[in-house]
Amino acid sequence: MAAGNRTQNRPLSPFLQVAFKMLMTSGLSITHRLTGIALTVGILYFLWWLVAAAAGPEAYGAFMTFSGSPLGLLMLFGWTFCLYYHLANGIRHLFWDTGALLELKNAFAAGYAVLAFTAVMTLGTWFCVFFW
Amino acid sequence: MSRKWEDNGYKTPMARVRGLGSSRSAVPGWVRLRMTAIANVPLVAWFVWFAVQSIGASHAEFTALLGHPVNAVMMILFIVSVFWHAVLGSREIVEDYIHLEWFKAVKLIGMYLFFFAAAVTAIFCVLKVTFGG
């Protein structure tokens, strides 16, 4: 019996693959924190922008040149995504604080709304940047 | 300093909770995080409009745009609300994941000093662009 038990290869505790499953809701929650951290780092970039504007045309030109470079555009696109996501999901959090949208069905529906808002606004903003 | 919950390990959980209080001074931070979050909604909407407006602007065009009274005031409000929200949010993350008391204290003090200095710098830059010429 004991030998039979051992050969069954039962999972040991803690067993992450069984105990933890990433759901859409937990994924959005983690993303909220990650985007918040990314936006906090983005404050440094924002600071560069204002300091360059106050310093004069030369410093401002250097900032604009970097912002227009592929790396600069990629960073700005990333921060645009983070901004809209954190904004929309933050509003979802504010609803939760009032006690609304806490039922599982509504929490998921609001989560999909956040993702849709983020996608539409991020792409829409960059569409405006390039074609308007 | 050591980890709080390892002090007096013979205590029952209830005794420990009574000694510390459940959240100590967390409530004002909780409220301010939400207040700045609400303020950030219109401010971020304005900021996106402002940032898109400023694309491709020369230095002179940008300083004229930022120097407009409405934009300058909105930018200063944006700086105060967003920087405050950032430091409160960062604090929440630090308090959740860093449990070594002395390191947590050093990190929080450093964050507060840095963000305060950054906000003062940013506001000064807006005022210089607006009034300094």
Written overview of the protein:
Chain A is mainly alpha-helical. Helix content of chain A is 83%, strand content 0%. Chain A contains 6 helices and no strands. In chain A, helix 3 packs antiparallel against helix 4. The radius of gyration of chain A is 22 Å and the shape is elongated. Chain A starts with a helix and ends with a helix. The mean pLDDT of chain B is 89. Helices cover 80% and strands 0% of the residues of chain B. Chain B has a single domain, classed as 3 helical TM bundles of succinate and fumarate reductases. Chain B is built from 5 helices and no strands. With 133 residues, chain B is mostly helical. Classes of the chains: A mainly alpha (132), B mainly alpha (133). Chains A and B meet through helix 3, helix 4, helix 5 and helix 6 of A and helix 2, helix 3, helix 4 and helix 5 of B.
